[in-house]
Amino acid sequence: MKFTTFPLNYTTLTLFMILPYVLTQSCKKTCGNIPIKYPFGTGPGCGDPRFQSYVNCNQEEQLTFITHKGCYPITSIDYNNQILYINDPSMSTCSCSQPSKGFSLDWNSPFSFHDNTIFALLDCSISSSSPIYGGGNNNNSSSYYNLCDQHGGEICNFLYSCSAISTKISSSPVSTCCVYTPVNLGPSFEMDLEKLGCSSYSGLYGFNGQETNPSVWKYGVALKYKFNYDNDYPSICANCEKTNGVCGYNVGGSNSYASFSCNCPNGFNSSDECFSGVYWSYGSRIFPWPQKTGAFLICYLARIAYEVLFML
Questions:
Q1: What is the pTM of this model?
Q2: Cα 270 to Cα 23, 176, 221, 288, distances in angstroms
Q3: What is the pLDDT of residues 224-239, one digit of tens each?
């Protein structure tokens, strides 16, 4: 039998050199310095599809929370307790006071406010027409505290002691501060400061053990989320992650239901985990992955070598 030899040219070398870079995991495990785990993802096809439109990793590697009101930087994620922490650059803190339009959640989003989240509305109108203090056009005095926590006075006192805030609203008494009680923002999930007659707000979710020192409070918004109705971590996702995969879903299919996909380090997607199941790339199915990684690598490299030699 006569064997044909092929010269090892630059094309062959280039193909083998770029192969490790082409076959990479499309779903990233980090965005900036924040680890990314289920149910979140770094792009379409990654994580849980219910969360994809609300949490995004942009080109600057900044993890962002998105609502119809705007985009907010995500500062950290507590995966053990299922809490997402975000920062609203327009909110007022003890070091910076500025006007704001407020904050809102999309009514159908898979997020809700954590119990530790506190909203303090600042520099609010105390006129009889105020929807906070006067109850709108309702002259019934019992509506006076409907939207404000009667026990939130201390928080307001400490916030108004901050020079950044007191300088901006020097002529406003502490009574113009309202610790907003309906932290779910009502049926519209909207905190519209213009309608409420307030100029700004402050959001916080912790005191750092120093309730009387607002300069060290944890400013921002804490949001909680659930995996599903029973809040059970999907076992199929756990199996995928044990094999160094990233949990995701199929995109671009004719079926409106997004089925599970395990994104593997070799760049392919699996229907189960990275050591078994059916694999595909760009919508085309590929042979099932052998159970042993070493066997797969041998078969895969042999396949690539065959294609390189006979396609040159």
A1: 0.76
A2: 14, 57, 36, 9
A3: 999 988 999 999 999 9
